[in-house]
Amino acid sequence: MSKYCQHCGSNQNKLSTTCNNCGKSPFITFDEKDSSELNFGLKAVSFCIPLAGLILYFVHKSNSPRKSKQACHSALYGMLLGFIFQILATLAGA
Ligand SMILES: [Zn+2]
Q: Rounded mean pLDDT of the chain?
């Protein structure tokens, strides 16, 4: 049974860990596959409702680290903004 490089398509030696044609790993790694972006709607939801962002973080954590990171960041920015507004509201009320 022969293997093919997923980068250049050349036939691979069974035991090789790097492609003899392009020098890359014949098999695309998890990181390279994970180029998906969290869509804007979900980012906005994470931003407005940090808890939703936290849920998205855990949902995507196992299969898409990139998406989970983006959800996490949106939630953090949302929380930070909410915190600032709370301080402003407190100051305004005092
Ligand atoms: Zn190759």
A: 84
pTM exceeding 0.85: no
pLDDT interval class at 31 (50, 70, 90)? low
Ligand 1 centre from 21 Cα, in Å? Answer: 5
Upper half-sphere CA count for residue 14 (Cβ side, 13 Å): 2
In the reported structure, the alpha carbon of residue 74 is separated from the centroid of ligand 1 by a whole-number distance in angstroms of 37
Domain borders along the chain are 1-33, 35-94
Query: What token pair was written down for 29?
Result: 């790694």
